[in-house]
Amino acid sequence: MILSDIEKVEGKMNRRILIIDDDANIRNLYSDFLSNSLSCRQDTSLTAFEVITADHGQAGVEIFKKALENNQPFCVAFIDIRMRPGWDGLKTARAIRDFDDRIFIVIVTGHHDHSIERIQDVLEHDVFYLNKPASKDEICQMARSLCLRWNRDYSHEKIKTQPEIEKEHKPIDKTCPGIIRISGISDAAIELLHNETLVIRGFPFKIGRIATADPQNRLVDRQLLIEDTEPYNVSKNHLLINFYEDHYYILDNGSRLGTIVNGNLIGKKNSNYKAVLNSGDNTLIVGSESSPYRFRITLNEN
C-alpha cells in the first residue's frame, strides 16, 4: 500500500499519539494542534489525531502498556527529554520501545543533555527529533508522516500481549530435541569463538553487543557478547536463538540494522522479526550485509 492509497482511507487509520511532557502548557498545545480536526488537515476529508497525554515518564509507560493490552497501540510518542521529577525522556523512551518496537519516537528537547549519538545508541534505531519551541506545522507534519508510515508498515500485524511475549521468550528447562551448534564463518566470528564450535545448551540464547569484554568471558550465561566498535553493527540486545512449539528460530530484538538469516532480512522495521532454522546448516549475519559477524548455525535433529 502506497501513501496515496493510505490517505484515501485515512479515517480508518490508527492515529493514536502519546504525548509525555511535564509542562501542562506544552501538553495543551499538542492537544490543540493534533486533536483539533482542522489544525493538521491538509484535506477536509481527514480525521483528527487521537491524542493521549501524560505528565511524567512512568505515567506515560503505564498508559502505553494498557493500550497494548487493549489492542490499541500508539503510532507515535512525542517525549520531552528533560522531565522532573522521575524518569527523563531517554529512560521513558527505552521502556516504551521495550514493550513495542514498532513505535516511532520523537524526542523533543530544548537542551543538550544527551548527544544524538547517545540517544541513537540507547534507543537502537529510528529516533526523530524536534527542537523547542516547535511550530504547529512541524508537529503536525511529523505526526502525520509517522502515522502514515506506521499504518503502511504495521497495520496488518496482530499485537502480542505481554503474557504471549513472555511465554514465547520463556527459558527452556526441559531438554530440547536435536543439537544446535554455532561456529564462525568470517574471521571476526571465528576469532570471537576462539576457532571452536559452540554447542548451545540453554535457551533463549542471546547475541548482543557489549562495550568491553574479557576475551575469555564472551560466552556467559546463555549469551554471546560481541565487543563491537562504532559505527556499530551489533545492537545491545540484538537477537535471540530460541526453541518454541517444536522448532528452533532466531528472533531479531528490534536491532538497528536487522539480522540476516539464510539470506533473508528480519527486523530493521521489516514486518518479519522471526526466522525458523532449517535442519542442517544455516547462515547468520548479525547486522547488515557489511557486518563482519557471520556465523553458521547447524541444527542436527534427532
What do these coordinates show?
The chain has 302 residues and is α/β, with parallel strands linked by helices. It has two domains: 3-154, Response regulator (Rossmann fold); 164-300, Tumour Suppressor Smad4 (Sandwich). 27% of the residues lie in helices and 27% in strands. The chain is built from eight helices and 17 strands. It has helices spanning 3-8, 24-35, 57-69, 89-99, 116-123, 136-154, 162-168, 187-192; strands at residues 16-20, 50-54, 76-80, 104-109, 127-131, 179-184, 198-200, 205-209, 219-220, 223-226, 239-244, 247-252, 259-261, 264-266, 274-276, 280-286, 294-300. The strands form three sheets. It has a six-stranded antiparallel β-sheet. A six-stranded mixed β-sheet has the order 9-10-8-11-12-15, with no helix packed on it. Helix 3 (57-69) packs parallel to helix 4. The termini are far apart. Mean pLDDT is 80; it is low at 1-11 and 165-174.
Quickly name the level 1 CATH class of the largest domain: Alpha Beta
Mean pLDDT: 80
The arrangement of helices and strands along the chain is HEHEHEHEHEHHEHEEEEEEEEEEE
The tally of domains stands at: 2
Count helical runs. Answer: 8
Quick one: biggest sheet?
6 strands, antiparallel
Q: Calculate the terminal CA-CA distance, rounded to whole Å.
A: 43 Å
CATH homology superfamily name of the largest domain:
Response regulator
What's the helical proportion of residues?
25-40%
pLDDT < 50 stretches? 1-11, 165-174
CATH architecture of the largest domain: 3-Layer(aba) Sandwich
| Strand adjacency order, main sheet | 7-6-17-16-13-14
Strand content: 25-35%
Enter the CATH topology name of the largest domain.
Rossmann fold
State the shape.
elongated
Count all strands and give the number: 17
